[in-house]
Amino acid sequence: MDGEELTEQETALYDRQIRVWGADAQRRLSKAHILVSGLKGTVVEFCKNIVLAGVGSLTLIDDRPVTKEALSANFLIDPDDNEFTGKSLAELCCDSLKDFNPMVRVSVENGDLSSFGVDFYDKFDVVVVSCCSITAKRLINEKCRKLPKRVAFYTVDCRDSCGEIFVDLQNYTYSKKKLDETIECQLQYPSFEDAIAVPWKSLPRRMSKLYFAMRVIEQFEEAEGRDPGQTSKDDLPKVLKLRKELFEAQSLNESLIPDSLLERLVSCTTEFPPVCAVIGGILGQEVIKAISGKGDPLKNFFFFDAMDGKGIIEDISKPDSGS
Amino acid sequence: MPKKKKKNQTLNLYRYPSLCSINPSIHSPYFDFLALSVSPMASQQQLSSIKGAKVLMVGAGGIGCELLKTLALSGFEDIHTIDMDTIEVSNLNRQFLFRKSHVGQSKAKVAREAVLRFRPHISITPYHANVKDACFNVEFFKQFNVVLNGLDNLDARRHVNRLCLAADVPLIESGTTGFLGQVTVHIKGKTECYECQPKPAPKTYPVCTITSTPSKFVHCIVWAKELLFAKLFGDKNQENDLNVRSSDATRQSEHAEDVFERKKEEDIEQYGRRIYDHVFGYNIEVALSNEETWKHRNRPKPIYSRDVLPVELTQQNGNVDKNSVADDPSSVSAMASLGLKNPQDIWSLSENSRIFFEALKLFFVKREKEIGNLTFDKDDQLAVEFVTAAANIRAASFGIPLHSLFEAKGIAGNIVHAVATTNAIIAGLIVIEAIKVLQNDVNSYRMTYCLEHPSRKMLLMPVEPFEPNKSCYVCSETPLLLEVNTYCSKLRDFVEKIVKAKLGMSFPSIMHGSSLLYEVGDDLDEAMITNYAANLDKVLSELPSPVTGGTILTVDDLQQELSCSVTIKHREEFDEEKEPDGMVLSGWTQAPAKEDNNTSANNGESTSNTSQAVSLETMEVNEIQIVPTGAGSVSSGTKRKLSDMSDAADPDHSSVITETSSKEELQELDDDDGDDVVMIDDVNSDGSKKKRLQ
Questions:
Q1: In chain A, is it the N or the C terminus that has fewer CB atoms within a 10 Å radius of its CB?
Q2: Which B-chain residues 503-562 have CB contacts (< 8 A) with chain A?
Q3: Domains of chain A (ranges plus CATH)?
């Protein structure tokens, strides 16, 4: 890096983690700017992790007022504090997060993320979106990709006991240790749009069922004009119908997604706190890896279901675009 | 395990009540769902099992903070937590419930306050105490539905394991190191207990390697910390091998005793130079005189202070006044008075020498009262500086690469790598298992490993728990066999080296038939105390009820409610290097500590006749053990697939060595993903070679 040294204060505070990823990675972290949108439980977990790790700045976007549901997996807001009326979710979380690490600048940006121009994203190194429609995911990912510098793009969603992370690091170079050497590696990531456009038939047979289930629900919410996560058990017949159509279009058997999985995801949209901790932890680690340029990053989907306990990485990219 | 059980699991698992159970006034979508659900009874049961559960969380540190938060958010309402520690600055990067203003306060108490802020209506009972305290007895443990461990040391883990077995309370055990972590479930009679598989012993080094033939930096650290530091600043009466280094050691040590005493009227500069020249110069010369030792080794180079640092330089060495503001002993620093700022820098031999003199001087000028009582503490800045400098000077003498203070501190303090994210993930997994345990959903219990590199595409890998080990002396009543020379070994050796160190008992009593040879307790009368004290100093065969070959001893721990039967086998000879205790316990195998490869080949030739081993104390051990390879996600729970266990969390090694052990582990693992073996924790990767792949 540029030879700037960590301060004594930083060395003392970050001692244990510098022993994990090195002083160089710590310096890179302290210069990284991160944007998150959609402050539900999983993202709150992620914010905690990344603020503790000592990033340069964290910008929060979520204009929604605080609802009781939003509090279900959120440890940043005091539920009995009625003074939050008037403050947005992002503002309340910001107040709390600032306290976690005085060396990190935490701030709030108002507005609708997908309405911001490309220039807005230029300020950031990492963009994480949650509670976001499929169109918005595509759009934001596209804007990040238009910039000359690399902006790492992540989406994260948890429903019931399941969670999903998507990663786009574009053209990414990193170093890793192999035996006694440090070797340089390269990975080529597809955009969100390109990844989900990969024909399902060309995917490996043992692909995580959650991938398909999440795509069906995403499409359903889009078609019905729902806010992300606004589904109930009553929607199940329509969702099952959509599953049939989508699988027929892909010439696959719809039994690839069990009814019970869709039923769970549609009916119980509230996050389950232990899953938030797991997904928020994995996402935190991945963002730290991406910033430090050290260690294999995950490419490009991650799935976790508390039901079977597996945390699985799936690479969903066109065969020719993968590295 | 039967897969048909899966359906039940589905019903149970996906209706976690979260908010509704915390604050009934908050309307929860779970209620809507529960009303509609096919099997409302199951859900109600689940809801009430979380709400009604009384859980004990042992440890409120790295994993503990995350766990308490996730438990509270998940709807647990009655949580007890024990932690003896107070908050330190280096905790704040991951123990997110703590702030700088809390430094010095009880972790358990501050954690409680912090969690009550976002979940005010639940009950959290903190204990600022050691879990090994007698008040946490079997009765205490019996009140809980499940015990969750977030501990950092083997000793406490074993203790809690025994109490959980005795109280018949399920235990969920966890540990993390860097990006690696694990969660395991231990249910008496159903799954293996925490001690069913042997745990790696803390690393020890043969005395001769430390005193005469160091080949790695860690040997220099052990020498500087356990011998030199202890000799100069610790208890003068303790045995110390500082001068044992050659065949004529006995003769030397006669007068060597006074060398370390500061003479009356002796100037602190002169004293420092005398110590320096003695340990880095004279002692090396003496060692060199023993040609045998150096036949197959590089000869060390004696270092004298006048060659490294001209006399006038020491005089103008540090500026003690820079420290004068600091009356707080912990902030006295030789680096500060010498203007050295970056703990990541590797100092030259001359800088290390200046730190050595300055630190020694500061101890005598600023902290004189503590001299004689000091023990090394990784949070004692001046002690770390002194040990770093002394280890580096010794390393220079033996041609071993020098290290920064940051690295030296990690090795000397057995500092375990820790990050917030792994702790958060592990805490989430603990809660998932805890809910299954409360539901008594036996078939879905899993041990889960958090990996750094995917195996079969998995970063989080669940494995079915193993059955209890039938020959485990802790959870089965398997007799142990002790080979010992009953005419030489004293009862004290048996108590210290076997009963306490190996069997992990805290309040032991030892019976031979109906005769009590030894016990500990508050309620003993004078006569008994005298009697037991006398027994301790007797050799086994001369005890009031003689212990000889064939004797069967019953060893109990009243607090742990653990009873072992130990059969004695008399044996004359023991190998001093391989069997340093002079006793061998079997029927229970402790995993071998990792071999010290570079020196083991040469150790046999050593001229040292000492038999003890110097051990680095185990301050923070977060063990990671096995990562089964063939097991996949679901396999038969009857057999352990990977007998070869490795310990990624090797506490007393530098990062370099930790990497090595993780590599071994991961190479076994990566059957799908080629031989990608990477560690992210390389501190100095900039200097290493770079090569392009593909």
A1: N
A2: none
A3: 8-194+271-314 (3.40.50.720), 200-267 (no CATH)
